[in-house]
Design a protein that fits this description.
This protein has 14 helices and no strands. It has 348 residues and is an all-alpha fold. It has one domain: ABC transporter involved in vitamin B12 uptake, BtuC (Orthogonal Bundle). Helix 1 runs antiparallel to helix 3, helix 4 runs parallel beside helix 11 and helix 12 runs parallel beside helix 14. The longest helix is centred in the first third of the chain and has 35 residues. The mean pLDDT is 86.
Length: 348
């Protein structure tokens, strides 16, 4: 096959993948619009458009609903979903494990333990404002767990199996510690811990949105810098090393990025499952293994999944907002089984 023919095929595949990304962005815009329209207040598409362009022209109560409730919820879904999707594709690639997710390393479980500890010991933490104590402690414990995993990874040469096993050990340790706190806590504290663990976008506001968005914006370019190395790694570690990829260094840096993304994603909204697992798998099915497109597609897929879940959480039961973590878990299991079946069929 001539070089011109290969170049033509490559260009055609690139155009198709670009078109898929554009279609995903259009779907994301539609999902956000539906999310903003969902709820008991009678706000139509025209009302929302006018409210976004001219907030002062809206009726005060509608302006509060749009700018203080619906818009932060809709946008934090994009930020958290994109962060989890990006973290998911990186951890799946560097660990060469399709079942890996941002929670595999135990970082989200550490955040849960930090939040539970804050709820139980809240009166004993006087130096932190009440509104900031819980996310601050969840973030600190999540980053601490990520740091421990990173140190162990560096000490043991970044061996893939060791990272997975240590992450699982960290996960079970933090879950056991959280269970012990719930056993010792009173009924009110247990209820708060349970509510935090199921995940809800209503906990976050504009400040939290700004922090999550800033972290994603800072990490994303570093992920894009490694797309060629990540693509080569999919061909096997030995193949990547032969071409000159420092696999251990690549894995350490990816774990650092995953740790930061996951910590900031979960500390404000709680643990939201399956987004970081399904987003990359869906992107891989429609995009392929070229990480130049797969990395942004995974972030886009995570944002779209969580945005749709946010819309459904307000639409399924009139007058009731279902915690989004419940929806992602309930829909995630059958969806994941379907993806496995489609993947096996495609591999035949």
């Amino acid at each position: 096959m001539s070089d011109a023919t290969l170049a033509s095929q490559f260009a055609r595949i690139s155009r198709r993948r670009t078109a898929i990304l554009m279609a995903g962005l259009a779907a994301l815009l539609l999902s956000v619009t539906l999310d903003l329209m969902a709820g008991p207040a009678d706000l139509g598409l025209a009302d929302i458009a006018r409210g976004l362009v001219d907030p002062a022209g809206m009726e005060p109560r509608f302006r509060v609903i749009l700018w203080s409730v619906r818009l932060p919820d809709a946008l934090i879904a994009l930020g958290v979903g994109a962060a989890l999707g990006l973290a998911g594709i990186e951890i799946q690639t560097v660990l060469n494990n399709p079942l890996a997710s941002p929670y595999t390393l135990g970082i989200a479980s550490a955040a849960t333990f930090g939040a539970a500890l804050t709820i139980v010991l809240a009166p004993a933490i006087p130096w932190l404002p009440a509104a900031a104590a819980l996310p601050a402690m969840a973030l600190a414990f999540a980053l601490g767990a990520g740091g421990v995993v990173l140190l162990v990874t560096a000490a043991l040469g970044g061996v893939r199996e060791t990272v997975v096993l240590f992450g699982i050990a960290m996960l079970f340790l933090c879950e056991a510690a959280t269970a012990l706190l719930m056993y010792l806590a009173n009924a009110e504290a247990v209820q708060q811990i349970v509510f935090w663990t199921i995940g809800s976008l209503t906990k976050a506001g504009w400040v939290e949105l700004a922090l999550v968005s800033l972290v994603f914006a800072l990490v994303f370019p570093f992920s894009l810098r490694n797309v060629w190395a990540l693509t080569l790694l999919r061909g096997g570690e030995e193949h990547a090393r032969a071409i000159g990829v420092d696999v251990a260094r690549l894995r350490r840096h990816a774990i650092l990025r995953v740790s930061v993304l996951t910590a900031f994603a979960v500390c404000f909204v709680g643990s939201i499952g399956f987004v970081g697992l399904l987003g990359p798998h869906i992107a891989r099915l429609v995009i392929g293994e070229d990480h130049r497109f797969l990395v942004p597609a995974s972030a886009l897929g995570g944002a779209l999944l969580l945005s749709v879940a946010s819309w459904l959480s307000k639409s399924l039961l009139p007058g009731v907002i279902i915690p989004v973590g419940i929806l992602t878990a309930m829909a995630g299991v059958p969806f994941f089984v379907l993806l496995i079946m489609l993947g096996r069929r495609a591999g035949r």
